[in-house]
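Figure 3 (text version): structure tokens given as input.
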């Protein structure tokens, strides 16, 4: 971010440049992704890309999105938990007068979502598999991203007094 603000440029190279060892187990993957998410959130809270001098509007928005997308994990976790009240309490999370209303609303959302993902992956070898695996990974990693959000926000803002934090004098 600082290099681009200083005037350096970047370019896209369509080949895999990553070589080396991956985490050996799923616990290592979750630990690695937690560190990455926490680092991105710390950049967002300490060096807001939207206020960084020297970046174009597009660069600021792209850096902001790459740091802030971890907050979207909350909606994914809540959406994943939505069937639980229905199964145990019979309380529906949605209220539709007819099935066709839901079908049109959900179908439109889903079709546009997949279209945007397809456009973002165009030109990528194995784009359909990449989209499918990316969606699966996001759902399984969402609780980890949410954990990063809570850890970073609490660390940056400090614990409230009612959770054992100390009060600060102004």
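Below: residues designed for each position.
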């Amino acid at each position: 971010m600082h290099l681009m603000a200083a005037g350096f440029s970047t370019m896209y190279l369509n080949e895999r440049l990553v070589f080396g060892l991956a985490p050996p187990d799923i616990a290592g993957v979750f630990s690695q992704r937690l560190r990455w998410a926490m680092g991105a959130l710390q950049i967002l809270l300490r060096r807001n890309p939207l206020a960084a001098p020297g970046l174009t509007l597009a660069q600021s928005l792209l850096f902001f999105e790459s740091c802030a997308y971890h907050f979207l994990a909350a909606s994914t976790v809540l959406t994943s938990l939505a069937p639980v009240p229905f199964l145990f309490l019979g309380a529906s999370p949605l209220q539709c007068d007819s099935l066709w209303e839901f079908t049109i609303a959900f179908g439109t959302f889903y079709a546009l979502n997949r279209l945007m993902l397809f456009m973002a992956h165009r030109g990528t070898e194995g784009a359909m598999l990449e989209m499918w695996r990316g969606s699966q990974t996001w759902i399984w990693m969402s609780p980890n991203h949410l954990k990063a959000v809570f850890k970073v926000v609490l660390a940056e803002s400090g614990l409230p007094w009612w959770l054992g934090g100390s009060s600060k004098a102004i």
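The CA atoms of residues 10 and 83 lie 44 Å apart.
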